[in-house]
């Protein structure tokens, strides 16, 4: 089943309508899990990737207060800034030693889990390959 509604996708798994899902949004999953939904994350033997997800910080090249932007960025990179941001976003920080209270345990890597960092070039190449593969697999289903 294909859906763009991540809350609905989480609900389907929590209610047992579909036993497995791929690409589930960590925030909606955590809400279901926190409310008693029987949802768990499995670690792939091959490992998983780490990306910025929705956590990229973008600033215009010509900003009115150059040093204010730098001050905000520097604060976001502190342990306290990472703690507040990750709790608000619902995903674990990449920085070690940051409190993870209120952050989804489903989004945190398992001890010893292989993690690959995804960079911009990987994203461009992987996106093109993923689109081609998805079209090949799902085109007959979407007719």
Query: Which term fits the overall shape?
Result: globular
The level of helicity is: 40-55%
How many strand units? 2
Low-confidence stretches: none
> What's the overall average pLDDT, rounded?
80
Oligomer: single chain
> Beta-sheet strand percentage?
under 5%
| Strand-pairing-aware structural class | mainly alpha
Query: What's the end-to-end separation, in Å?
Result: 14 Å
Radius of gyration: 18 Å
The SSE order reads HHEHHEH
Describe the model.
With 143 residues, this protein is mainly alpha-helical. The protein has a domain at 41-114. It has helices at residues 6-14, 26-34, 66-76, 79-89, 120-138; strands at residues 48-50, 115-117. Strands 1-2 form a two-stranded parallel sheet. α1 runs parallel beside α2. The protein is globular and about 50 Å long. The protein starts with 5 loop residues before the first helix and ends in a 5-residue tail after the last helix. The model has no long low-confidence stretch (mean pLDDT 80).
Helix-strand layout with pairing:
Elements (H helix, E strand, L loop, with lengths): L5 H9 L11 H9 L13 E3 L15 H11 L2 H11 L25 E3 L2 H19 L5
Parallel strand pairs: 1-2
Provide tags for this entry:
2 strands; 41% helix; single chain; globular; mainly alpha; 143 residues
Question: What is the gist of this entry?
Answer:
By secondary structure, the protein is mainly alpha-helical. It is 41% helix and 4% strand.
